[in-house]
């Protein structure tokens, strides 16, 4: 359950690492897996990171910076979620993936596990970018 001031890990390669929830788009108290929220970037990766080649000329530019306000999709919650088949799923942390206002993901890769509730909420693009879904 994600609410106002909740800190989440950002698991895509957009450049953000830690974000803070500032609004829930569904106008309910809590956001669950697959819900759209508005976040502010609290911590981002540095602009001086070198790419996989390690050369001085391969500096990767982050797509977001600290203080940016973005839309995001909740992909993991620490609160237990019961599925229609009776299975209960609980993750270790709260995590999200940043998206644009048009609904397209900002990052091109999602690191880690995401909940398969995203399929029911029509976020199949995020599921296809993820390495695993549970």
- State Rg: 15 Å
Structural class by SSE content: mainly beta
**Approximate strand percentage:** 35-45%
Strand neighbour order, sheet with most strands = 1-2-3-4-7
Number of strands: 9
Helix content percent band? under 10%
**Discrete helix count:** 2
Could you walk me through the main structural features you see in this protein, from its secondary elements to its overall organization?
- The chain has 134 residues and is mainly beta.
- Helix content is 7%, strand content 36%.
- It contains 2 helices and 9 strands, in the order ββββββββααβ.
- The protein has helices at residues 117-120, 124-129; strands at residues 7-10, 16-24, 36-44, 69-76, 81-82, 88-89, 95-99, 110-114, 130-133.
- The protein has a 5-stranded mixed barrel. A two-stranded antiparallel ribbon has the order 5-6.
- The two termini are 18 Å apart.
- The model has no long low-confidence stretch (mean pLDDT 90).
């Amino acid at each position: 359950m994600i609410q106002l001031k909740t800190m989440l890990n950002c698991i895509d390669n957009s450049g953000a690492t830690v974000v803070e929830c500032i609004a829930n788009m569904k106008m309910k108290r809590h956001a669950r897996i697959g819900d759209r929220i508005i976040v502010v970037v609290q911590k981002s990766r540095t602009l001086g990171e070198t790419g996989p080649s390690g050369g001085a000329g391969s500096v990767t530019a982050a797509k977001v910076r600290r203080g940016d306000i973005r839309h995001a999709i909740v992909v993991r919650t620490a609160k237990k979620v019961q599925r229609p088949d009776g299975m209960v799923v609980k993750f270790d942390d709260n995590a999200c993936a940043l998206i644009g206002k048009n609904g397209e993901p900002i990052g091109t890769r999602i690191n880690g596990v995401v909940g398969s509730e995203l399929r029911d909420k029509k976020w199949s693009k995020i599921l296809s970018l993820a390495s695993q879904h549970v």
